[in-house]
Amino acid sequence: MKYWLMKSEPDVFSIDNLKKDKTTWWEGVRNYQARNFMKDMQVGDEVLFYHSNAEPPGVAGIAKVSKLAEPDAAQFDKKSEYHDPKATKEKPIWFCVQVAFVEKFDEVISLADLRGNDKLQDMLVLQKGSRLSVQPVEKKHFDLVKKMAAASARESAERKASGLKLKQ
Fold first, then answer.
1. Could you tell me the CATH superfamily of domain 3-167?
2. pLDDT tens-digit series, residues 29-56
């Protein structure tokens, strides 16, 4: 199994949209390196779902690859902003995988929190100039982000519980 990070702007498609829809095709990627990463993905690979251009930007949850890469239908649709006139059904240029919802974190693990963790310093998303919308993640980094989310959820639950005790 491999691990990935996929970025989406939450006003375009958020972790809540994925939770509601259950699955989506990760279409519209128009970067060759990101496309090639999707072509390498296997069913069951896990994905950090990252909200970019958000306040705060960061990892909002977990998804998994549910279908292998197929030609991105938007490249053939002349009405789509992702249309590519050079692409043909015989020779598609762009591909996308289907991802399925796994989990929404109680709180976004912010970019600042990721940067603040010394064990994540070599994570690709934290590298200067790294703007890829689809990128590989090392298992150790994936696991650490999940631990950060679990710790955040525990802290949030403890705050809520102590607030309830104070009110009583």
1. ph1033 like domains (3.10.590.10)
2. 999 999 999 999 999 999 999 999 999 9
Give residue 19's identity as a one-letter amino acid code: K
- CA 151 from chain centre, in angstroms, equals 20
- 39 touches 137 (CB < 8 A): no
Q: Where are the domains of the chain?
A: 3-167
Beta strands in 9-157 (DSSP E): 23-25, 46-51, 58-71, 95-110, 134-137
pLDDT at 74: 96
The long-range contacts involving 71-74, CB below 8 angstroms and separated by at least 24 positions, are 71/95, 72/25, 72/27, 72/28, 72/29, 72/96, 73/25, 73/27, 74/27, 74/28
Taking each continuous run of H as one helix and of E as one strand, the counts in the chain are 4, 6
pLDDT tens per residue across span 51-100: 999 999 999 999 999 999 999 999 999 999 999 999 999 999 999 999 99
Model pLDDT, residue 164: 58
Which single residue is written with the structure tokens 């590519």?
Answer: 84
Q: What is the mean pLDDT of the chain?
A: 94
Provide the residue count of the chain: 168
Specify whether the backbone of 129 is left (phi greater than 0), alpha (psi in -120 to 50) or beta.
left
